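Changelog-adjacent note: as of this version, every example in the card shows the full chain rather than a window. The one below runs 430 residues end to end.
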Amino acid sequence: MVRTAGKQKSVRLVLVCVGLLGFGVIANYLWASSPRLSNWSVDNSLTNLIIPRTEDPFSDATFPAPKGEADKGKKKKKGKDKDIPDRFLSATFADLPAPELKWDKMAPAPVPRLDGAAIQIKNLLYVFAGYGTIDYVHSHVDIYNFTDNTWGGRFDMPKEMAHSHLGMVTDGRYIYIVTGQYGPQCRGPTARTFVLDTETKQWRDMLPLPVPRYAPATQLWRGRLHVMGGSKENRHTPAFEHWSLAVKDGKALENEWRTEIPIPRGGPHRACVVFDDRLYIIGGQEGDFMAKPGSPIFKCSRRNEVVFDNVYMLDDDMKWKALPPMPKPDSHIEFAWVIVNNSLVIVGGTTDKHPITKRMVLVGEVFQFNLVTLKWSVIGKLPYRVKTTLVGLWNGWLYFTSGQRDRGPDDPTPKKVIGEMWRTKLKLNS
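Full-length structure tokens:
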């Protein structure tokens, strides 16, 4: 009896162990196939989803990609185009279908810069200021000569002049520089304005703006310097104000700025152009990074941003009129445009945030807006996505330099601040 009872207990113990083992295998299978391990694939239309790292994208301006990481995900082409990675279009990141363009890599700028400014006068591209890193800003001008494709002629800016988020425009000789951020990180703006005589390289003070702004839309129209929108003194709140000042030959003809009709939608980082005696503002955003409260270095802290695709025009009626919107929302394009014949060409920028990670998404397309037919088209792809790039045009070649590029073909979030210069032969749609 004792032996039989012991045998029965042994059999029960074996059965229990087998049962527990089977339960563990089934539970492990169910857990592995649960949504927690499915890479956040909540929408089957979002293919090849990549979850970027979670650090603040603005701080990416400080750090280049670790050695070897910049090449991840790239497929090198053979021959003279070997430096241009294949573009992988992912629905997740909202790249728009666009023709391939052949890009040539030119001599890089002397320094990398983010949120800088650029003005082209004839065959020279004047490149101003900008962040070198989040903790360092440039206070000089570099010049690119399109005739011989070389950099040279560097000279200093006034010590009191803003270093980023500038408003800037030219009459063909004099460059008017209005307001902007003074210093690195997310420091405050200055209301100071200046004029540069590009023939003598002499600087001159001009009437300050009524209040300081970040990245206002700026243009010369009908003999007046127009300054519109931007961000208010806290760097985040959209501004709607519109001022103008009569100017000629690098001098103010009035003692105060005149209040004009406010822009319909406030905010910074938009393109602003004049064509056929009409004033246009394109794209932009509401909101921006702010200084962290109490930070002694004004450390940048992320806030909500809304990028938009709006296009507005001001004409003889002095009323803003809405025009057909951009192919997708686009910001950080204040110096990323040129006018070619009857068209506006815009290069890169930033668009709506990633729908899942909420990270910033850079733009890798070239857009054309026919200012006669008022039709938009996507005319090509860039070598990579890039924001706050600086654009010029010479002998049919479209150039861009500087800005902040993406992490790779499959990751549109910002990474490295660049000084590279690229060009492509421009072909526009009719």
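Structural remarks: Confidence is low (pLDDT under 50) at residues 1-7, 25-82, 88-92.
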